[in-house]
């Protein structure tokens, strides 16, 4: 491995938004401040996010997704054709939490859908990359959504005029994302991640039924969905691609539990990513046994550090778990990260910025202890 592919201490993407940014976002949406002022607040938040990751010692940083409402929101912000996309477009579902946060049900907005042919108004993440690259000497990772997760935005009723079939819609989404990757690579991006939480969500019968009602069986998701992911990734020698799988992450809650086993054989082998970012912060993810399906040309980046609480992981505990996992994938093909972002949307999670930095430091220290 070389370049970004050799990184042992990794990060998923989002960080907790500072209060100044959350307040400015509200004021900007209400028309109380103009775009130049809001952009300056966003810029300061990105500077802060990069500084936090650098202090923790990470060799790779993101912009913290400070400019996004949600990790997946930039498509509807940059592309025409969507309706009904309030923040609940990214938050709906039956969410499960521990005793501290409890469960929460959010209904899917009934008017949510793609209602017109997609037309890109601007790039999705180029601004994020170009700004962040100028402010750090570390590798900058850019995160993009997996195209088929936008099946959530296709409705058999509302979308039939613009896109009579789910396939037609997702092919256009994949085309836009492929162009985004090409532009990022042209500008010098060397590490790009696709976020694909919808695959583990298929492990839940209720969620699977929702997606099957869109017209795709489980097997179709495993085949056509991965084809679209690979179309987005394309062929870019020297650029490292990661593929992130989790089970939902909003307000310290999750959507589903279950082993990777039903997904692992096909998904791990067939997606053209170099690094598999796998959630493993508690028993919800099952055992390490599915790691036996990780091909020899891929690195398994284990998300052993939870972003859902302030639980203080220690380098000793993390090293012990990594060595346990090495029974299925050798240490030279393992790396370490948080299990997900710290703030998948502006809602965030129930932990402090101090917790966040401590967790990132524990990841770096563990990586140094194991790999030097």
Automatic annotation (TrEMBL):
GO terms for molecular function: 5-methyltetrahydropteroyltriglutamate-homocysteine S-methyltransferase activity; zinc ion binding. It holds the Pfam family Meth_synt_2. Coiled coil: none annotated. CDD domains: CIMS_C_terminal_like. InterPro entries: Met_Synth_C/arc (IPR002629), UROD/MetE-like_sf (IPR038071). It comes from the Bacteria. Residues 11-349 form the Cobalamin-independent methionine synthase MetE C-terminal/archaeal domain. One of its GO terms (biological process) is methionine biosynthetic process. SUPFAM superfamilies: UROD/MetE-like. PANTHER family: METHIONINE SYNTHASE, SYNTHASE, VITAMIN-B12 INDEPENDENT, PUTATIVE (AFU_ORTHOLOGUE AFUA_3G12060)-RELATED. This is Methionine synthase II (Cobalamin-independent).
């Amino acid at each position: 491995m070389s370049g970004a592919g050799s990184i042992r201490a990794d990060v998923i993407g989002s960080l907790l938004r500072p209060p100044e940014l959350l307040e400015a976002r509200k004021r900007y949406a209400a028309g109380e401040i103009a775009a130049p002022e809001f952009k300056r607040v966003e810029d300061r938040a990105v500077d802060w996010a990069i500084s936090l990751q650098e202090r923790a010692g990470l060799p790779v940083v993101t912009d913290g997704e400070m400019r996004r409402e949600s990790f997946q929101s930039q498509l509807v912000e940059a592309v025409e054709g969507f309706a009904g996309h309030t923040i609940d477009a990214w938050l709906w579902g039956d969410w499960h939490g521990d005793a501290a946060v409890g469960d929460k049900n959010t209904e899917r907005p009934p008017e949510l859908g793609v209602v017109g042919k997609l037309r890109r108004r601007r790039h999705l993440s180029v601004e994020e990359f170009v700004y962040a690259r100028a402010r750090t000497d570390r590798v900058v990772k850019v995160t993009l959504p997996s195209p088929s997760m936008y099946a959530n935005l296709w409705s058999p009723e509302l979308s039939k005029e613009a896109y009579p079939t789910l396939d037609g819609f997702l092919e256009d989404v994949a085309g836009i994302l492929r162009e985004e990757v090409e532009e990022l690579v042209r500008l010098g991006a060397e590490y790009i991640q696709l976020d694909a939480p919808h695959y583990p969500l298929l492990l839940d019968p209720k969620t699977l039924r929702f997606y099957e009602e869109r017209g795709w069986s489980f097997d179709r998701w495993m085949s056509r969905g991965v084809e679209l992911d690979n179309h987005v990734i394309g062929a870019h020698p020297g650029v490292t691609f990661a593929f992130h799988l989790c089970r939902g992450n909003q307000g310290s809650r999750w959507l589903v539990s279950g082993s990777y086993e039903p997904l692992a054989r096909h998904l791990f082998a067939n997606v053209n990513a170099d690094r598999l970012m796998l959630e493993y912060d508690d028993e919800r993810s099952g055992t390490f046994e599915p790691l036996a399906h990780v091909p020899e040309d891929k690195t398994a980046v284990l998300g052993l550090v939870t972003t859902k609480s302030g639980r203080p992981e220690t380098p000793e505990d993390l090293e012990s778990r990594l060595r346990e996992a090495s029974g299925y994938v050798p240490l030279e093909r393992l790396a370490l990260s948080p299990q997900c972002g710290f703030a998948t949307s502006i809602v965030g999670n129930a932990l402090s910025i101090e917790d966040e930095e401590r967790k990132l430091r524990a990841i770096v220290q563990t990586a140094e202890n194991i790999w030097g």
